[in-house]
Specification:
- The complex is a heterodimer of chains A (about 230) and B (about 270).
- With about 230 residues, chain A is α+β, with helices and mostly antiparallel strands.
- Chain A is built from two helices and nine strands.
- Chain A has one domain: Lipocalin (Beta Barrel).
- The relative contact order of chain B is 0.20.
- Chain B is globular, with a radius of gyration of 18 Å.
- In chain B, strands 1-2-3-4-5-6-7-8-9 form a nine-stranded mixed beta barrel.
- Chain B is built from two helices and nine strands.
- Chain B has one domain: Calycin beta-barrel core domain (Lipocalin).
- Classes of the chains: A alpha+beta (about 230), B alpha+beta (about 270).
Chain lengths: ~230, ~270
C-alpha cells in the first residue's frame, strides 16, 4: 500500500521511471518527541565540546535562566526556534512526504519547514532562522543537511548557542513497525565547538491527532514555551 | 530581517503596478466621492510563470504546488471596489476604519499583531501559497506570516468548535471542483484589509477549480454572515501556477513594521 501510494504520487508528478528504486519509507504522520530533551548531550552522555568563548555565552544563558530571565531566548518573543531545537520541542510536528520535498509542519506557532530532495546545499544563502535544508535517501534513512542559519537562535532548550557557520545533519529512521522514528544529529560548527559531535532524539507517531491552531502572538508571554 | 526588507520591496513593486482591468473600480467607498472614504487601489498581483518554467499539471484533482494570486483587493466585496453587503451599523464601522486609515492611523487588526488574517482574507494575499495535497487533507502553507490552513477531506465539522482565527475547514470534490466549507472563526479578524466586519457566525464556502490546462487555479468564494451581512455574496479570484517560486521564511514577529501602538498601526 505504501509502495502503491508513492508510486502514484511519483506518477502524478510525471516522474515515473521504469528503473525506479525501492520506494523509500513513508515518514508521513504526526510525531511527538518521546523523551523531553532539555540540554543536548553527546551520544556518550557528555556535555557538548564548547569552545571557551562559546562556553561563556552558554553559562551566561544558564545564569539568566536561573533567575527566570529568558530575554536571551527569541522563542519567548515568538521568533522561530532554530534547529535542531525546533525538532526537540514538546509540541508535535507533521511530516508530509512528497517525491521532491519533505515538509515538516510544526504545531508550534504553525511553523513550516521544507527539505528539498536531490539538491546540493547552497554555497551563498541568506541566513534564516531555520536555515536551508536539502534531503536525500540513504537506503531507508532520510538524511537532511542544513546550513544558512541566523546566529541568534539556540541549539536546544537549555540555551546552547551556535554560530552562522553551523552545518546540521539529521538522519531520520523509521522503526520496523512504523510507529517510532529515530533522529541522529551531527553538529558541525567550528566557531562554537572544538570538534564535530553527535546527539539523538526519538519520536512516537500519533495517528489521528489534529493540531490546535497555535498562535504565539495571541498567547500570553507567561504561557509561551521557553527553555 | 532580510525577509522583511525583501517583502516590503516586493510589495512596493506591486503597488507601482496597481491594476486597472476593465471598468475602473470606485475610488471611494460606495462611490460617495468623499475623499476621507478613499479606497486603497487593488494590486495587479502575480503574473504567469516566466518562460521556461515547468508547465502546469493538467490533472484537475492535483493542486500540489505553488500558487500566487493575481489581482489583490483591499476591499473584498462582490466586485473590485464594491463593499460587502454590510448591514448599516457595520457599514458605519467600515467607514470609520477607512477614515482612520486615510488619516494615517489605521485601526489595528489581528494580522498587524502577527496573528492569522482570518477568513476569507487569508486567501487574499500578495504572497505565494503552497498547496500540499495528501490522501485525507489539503494543506495550505501561506508564505505570509507562516499561516497554515488545513482542509480535512475525511470528516465533517466537529459538533463543538472552539473559535479560531482560520476556523475549521472541511472539503469534498464535486467533479473537478474542490468545495471547502469553513465555520468556527473567531471575530478578531476582518473580512478584508479595509476593515469589513464578520462575526463568529461567518460561513465561507470556497470552490477551487483548475482552468487554463492547469496554469490557473480559480476560486469562487461565498461569504455568509447573518450578523454583519444583509445577504451572502460571492466573488471570484485566480491564482497563477508558479513552479519557479519557492516560498520564503516570513517572520512577522521579527521587526514587525505594522506593530500597533495604543490600538492603531502607523505603517501599512
Amino acid at each position: 500500500m505504501r509502495a502503491l501510494r508513492v508510486l502514484l504520487a511519483t506518477a502524478a508528478c510525471g516522474l515515473i521511471s521504469l528503473n525506479a528504486q525501492a520506494a523509500p519509507p513513508d515518514l508521513s504522520g504526526v510525531w511527538f518527541i518521546s523523551t523531553h530533551v532539555g540540554a543536548l548531550k553527546t551520544l556518550d552522555g557528555h556535555a557538548p565540546p564548547l569552545t571557551p568563548e562559546a562556553r561563556k555565552i552558554y553559562e551566561a544563558h544558564r545564569a539568566l535562566a536561573a533567575r527566570g530571565d529568558y530575554s536571551y531566548d527569541g522563542v519567548t518573543e515568538c521568533l522561530p526556534p532554530g534547529l535542531p531545537r525546533l525538532m526537540l520541542m514538546q509540541e508535535p510536528f507533521e511530516i508530509l512526504q512528497k517525491p521532491k520535498v519533505i515538509y515538516f509542519v510544526h504545531q508550534l506557532n504553525r511553523l513550516p519547514r521544507r527539505a528539498y530532495l536531490d539538491e546540493a546545499l547552497p554555497t551563498d544563502v541568506d541566513p534564516h532562522y531555520l536555515g536551508y535544508s536539502v534531503a536525500k535517501w540513504d537506503g531507508d534513512t532520510l538524511v537532511i543537511d542544513t546550513n544558512g542559519f541566523e546566529d541568534g537562535t539556540l541549539l536546544d532548550n537549555a540555551g546552547l548557542p551556535h554560530s552562522d557557520a553551523l552545518h546540521l545533519t539529521e538522519r531520520y529512521q523509521l522503526s520496523q513497525d512504523g510507529k517510532h522514528m529515530h533522529l541522529g544529529l551531527t553538529i558541525d560548527d567550528p566557531k562554537t565547538f572544538t570538534q564535530t559531535w553527535s546527539a539523538q532524539a526519538d519520536y512516537v507517531k500519533r495517528a489521528g491527532y489534529e493540531f490546535p491552531e497555535d498562535v504565539c502572538a495571541a498567547t500570553p508571554p507567561a504561557k509561551r514555551p521557553r527553555s | 530581517m532580510r525577509n522583511v526588507i525583501k517583502a516590503s520591496m516586493m510589495l512596493s513593486g506591486l503597488l507601482v503596478a496597481a491594476a486597472s482591468i476593465g471598468a475602473p473600480p470606485p475610488k471611494t467607498l460606495n462611490d460617495s466621492g468623499d475623499p476621507t472614504l478613499a479606497l486603497t487601489p487593488g494590486l495587479r498581483g502575480a503574473d504567469k510563470a516566466p518562460p521556461g518554467a515547468a508547465p502546469g499539471n493538467p490533472d484537475p484533482h492535483d493542486f500540489n504546488g505553488v500558487w500566487w494570486m493575481s489581482g489583490y483587493q483591499y476591499l473584498i466585496g462582490p466586485e473590485p471596489g464594491v463593499a460587502p453587503p454590510l448591514k448599516p451599523e457595520y457599514m458605519a464601522i467600515l467607514e470609520r476604519r477607512i477614515r482612520a486609515k486615510n488619516r494615517g492611523v489605521p485601526e489595528a487588526d489581528a494580522s498587524t499583531q502577527c496573528m492569522p488574517h482570518g477568513m476569507p482574507r487569508i486567501m487574499e494575499s500578495p504572497y505565494p501559497i503552497e498547496i500540499v495535497q495528501t490522501a485525507e487533507r489539503v494543506t495550505f502553507l501561506h508564505e505570509v506570516a507562516h499561516n497554515l490552513r488545513r482542509i480535512w477531506l475525511n470528516r465533517d465539522h466537529p459538533k463543538k468548535l472552539t473559535p479560531t482565527f482560520l476556523g475549521d475547514s472541511v472539503g469534498h470534490w464535486e467533479g473537478d471542483t474542490m468545495v471547502v466549507d469553513t465555520i468556527g472563526v473567531n471575530d478578531r479578524t476582518f473580512i478584508d484589509d479595509e476593515g469589513s466586519s464578520h462575526s463568529t457566525q461567518e460561513h465561507v464556502i470556497e470552490r477551487y477549480r483548475k482552468i487554463d490546462n492547469g496554469s490557473t487555479l480559480e476560486l469562487m468564494v461565498t461569504v455568509e454572515d447573518p450578523v454583519t451581512l444583509e445577504h451572502p455574496y460571492t466573488y471570484r479570484r485566480v491564482f497563477r501556477w508558479r513552479p519557479d517560486v519557492r516560498p520564503q521564511e516570513y517572520v512577522c514577529e521579527e521587526n514587525n513594521r505594522n506593530a500597533p501602538v495604543n490600538g492603531v498601526t502607523v505603517a501599512k
